[in-house]
Specification:
Length: 75
């Protein structure tokens, strides 16, 4: 997964690393970089997501490769 750069938190607030919230369980990739990724969010059971699907608020699944995927801002 592509992670976000750390940001400073307001006093009393913790910064959560977005990459720690997501776990890639499996990938079904095609030569066109389309495909499906099985992703667990916040320790919940993994769900399948197609390229372009919203995985979490403001994050969509970007093109899928054979051994990795990326999450990015929704268009």
């Amino acid at each position: 997964f592509m992670g976000a750069s750390p940001v400073a938190a307001a006093p009393g607030l913790a910064v959560v690393n977005p990459a720690s919230r997501f776990s890639l369980v499996g990938v079904v990739a095609r030569a066109s970089r389309a495909g499906i990724a099985l992703i667990s969010v916040d320790g919940k059971p993994a769900k399948p997501y197609r390229v372009g699907a919203t995985v979490d608020e403001g994050l969509v699944l970007q093109p899928v490769e054979s051994r990795r995927v990326a999450l990015g801002p929704s268009a």
